């Protein structure tokens, strides 16, 4: 049974969004998928999420989206899938690489579940 914590999964690529939602569910959390910036922002205004999972967008849109998330829900953490790790304490953001076990581990670390990742 999934944890009660909710993750909003955003990617403009529907296949990546669905795949990432599967990782969220494998980590034991509930997910909601959106594939447009506008849909993500509308949903964040209407509902509370514990974390937003973002992929790398090819333009500056991901940075703008993160800023909008901070304006709407400053308490909501973000996790960006990037080729390198880093943590931005000011914005409560964290980056992880696309390796599925690392994504699951980062989700569990940020949301407080320290079970081992199901992938190797």
Describe the structure in your own words.
The protein is globular, with a radius of gyration of 13 Å. Helix 2 runs parallel beside helix 3. The chain is α/β, with parallel strands linked by helices. It has a single domain, classed as Rossmann fold. The protein has helices at 14-26, 37-46, 61-72, 100-111, and strands at 6-10, 30-34, 51-54, 77-81, 86-88, 93-96. The chain has four helices and six strands. The mean pLDDT is 82. It has a six-stranded mixed β-sheet.
Give me the secondary-structure topology.
Layout: E1 6-10, H1 14-26, E2 30-34, H2 37-46, E3 51-54, H3 61-72, E4 77-81, E5 86-88, E6 93-96, H4 100-111
Parallel strand pairs: 1-2, 1-3, 3-4, 4-6
Antiparallel strand pairs: 5-6
Helix pairs in contact: 2-3
What do the pLDDT scores average to?
82
CATH architecture: 3-Layer(aba) Sandwich
- Give the name of the CATH superfamily: Response regulator
Poorly predicted tracts of residues: none
Summed up, the helix count is 4
Alpha-beta content class: alpha/beta
Q: What global shape is seen?
A: globular
Q: Say what the CATH topology is.
A: Rossmann fold
Strand percent estimate: 15-25%
- The top-level CATH class is Alpha Beta
Strand order of the largest sheet: 2-1-3-4-6-5
**Helix content range of the residues, please?**
25-40%
Radius of gyration, whole Å: 13 Å
Terminal Cα separation, in Å?
22 Å
SSE topology string: EHEHEHEEEH
Number of strands: 6
How many domains is the backbone divided into?
1
Largest sheet: 6 strands, mixed
């Amino acid at each position: 049974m999934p944890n009660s914590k909710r993750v909003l999964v955003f990617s403009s690529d529907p296949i990546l969004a669905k795949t990432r939602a599967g990782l969220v569910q494998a980590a034991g959390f509930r997910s909601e998928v959106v594939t447009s910036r506008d849909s993500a922002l509308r949903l964040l205004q209407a509902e509370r999420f514990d974390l937003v999972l973002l992929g790398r967008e090819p333009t500056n849109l991901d940075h703008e989206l993160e800023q909008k998330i901070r304006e709407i829900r400053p308490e909501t953490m973000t996790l960006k899938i990037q080729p390198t790790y880093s943590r931005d304490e000011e914005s409560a953001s964290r980056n992880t690489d696309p390796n599925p076990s690392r994504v699951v581990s980062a989700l569990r670390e940020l949301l407080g579940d320290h079970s081992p990742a199901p992938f190797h």
